[in-house]
Amino acid sequence: EILENLFMYIQKKDLSHLLFMNDIYKKILNIHGNIVEFGTRWGRNLALFVSLRGIYEPYNHTRKIIGFDSFTGFPNISKKDGNHSTLKKGSYSVTKDYINNLDKFLEKKERELPINHIKKYELIKGDVSKTSHNYFNKNKESIIALAVFDLDLYKPTKEALKSILPRLSKGSIVLFDELNHSAY
Fold first, then answer.
1. DSSP assigned state of 71
2. Which residue among 30, 82, 113, 184 is least crowded, i.e. fewest CB within 10 A of its CB?
3. Helix axes 98-111, 44-56, angle to 10 degrees
4. What one-character DSSP code corresponds to residue 117?
């Protein structure tokens, strides 16, 4: 009952986030490429993107949704990362082996959609500073329509950005969470 009446309980900030991501998704409908998120954590944006793909382009089997995260929280903090109170080693970690739960959840979401025999998402675990370069070196065909950065840390953000720059095309969108936030 709660899920079917979600709009009675959802906070304004979460509804705003949903509507914003919906608007961003609509802007890439005519842009070829994948959606990548750096800093997946619990996977709320990945789940949202899977649902939006099911609504707007249910038969697009070439657009993958790819989530990068350590799933263990911040590995370490440097002076370049800022002074926000959340900037501590281990912040934004998830429960042990959560990546397996997220994988099963996304798999179930995809089963509800057309052409569900083709897996159209990936979860990449590890230090984004390394895994982003490794992923794109192995997947040379991969181009990006939308890149979402929610890493909060300087080095992995810089390295992931370097890894995707050659993969962007005309119309690609690069979205930064906490952009222009003085504490990050």
1. S
2. 30
3. 10
4. T
